[in-house]
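Appendix B, record 7
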Amino acid sequence: MEINQIAPLENKFTEVLKALVLNVKMLYYYGNLPENRQKTVAIVGSRRNTPYGYEVAYRAAYEAAKAGAIVISGLAYGIDSVAHRGALDAGGITIAVLGTPITEIYPKPHKGLAREIIEKGGAVISEYGPEDTPLGLPDIKARFLARNRIIAGLSDAVLVVEAADHSGTLNTATHALDLGLDLLAVPGDITKSTSVGCNKLIKQGALPYTEPDDLLDILFPERIVKRRSRKLLNKLLLKTETEVEKQVLSVIFEGISDGDEIIKRLKISATDFSQAITMLEIKGLVVALGMNQWMTRG
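Structure tokens (predicted):
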């Protein structure tokens, strides 16, 4: 596979890394990096995940990718690999950030996962190029901690699924807080070690994650407006009596105000429209603007 390289400031998607205190001078990567900023979420967690963590991480990644967000993680065992898998299964884009030189995919059993990420439009990236040799302990641990700042730096929000106390995952959470990102954590069983880190983050102010909407509403706030609009429409529809009234009210609620256009849209007669709009006006559900123009009330 061809190794590409780019300075973060040369790309709209990666230029956000300029906010990091410890600069990233160069990125080496396989695959394709987005050319422009897109909604991006980091999903990270324990290498020794529980079935609960697997289910939560997979669904979060799947729904985020399905909604159009890029999912970032570290290709590690456990939650990281689950996040990548969820995004891939949703047909979305995912990016893996290595703590090793770009030529050293780690862990080795995940070479197949890395290849799939690349083949399906994503990327595997590292700040360490081919000339950087693999290191032994403790230096390699320092590199993995350093890569966490890139995972957070590329993201709009960070979701921590499972984390033991003092785990490397919490290091990613710290970077998220330093960067002013939205940080979410999954509440867990207080008797399990893999829940200690997340429960602590929540006590310290992280947003509790209990369903995909918790994350999606942060990434795509327009969803909240649409949901509130739908609730308001449903409330208004309860006051209608006929199917034509429901249809006319729904179309006006969408923003179509002209009576002739409503008749054409619904394929109803002028008589049916006149009867329906009269009843809707009597019930206080619509307001006449004049010249056969209408708007909903409420």
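Remarks on this record: The longest strand covers residues 27-31. The mean pLDDT is 93.
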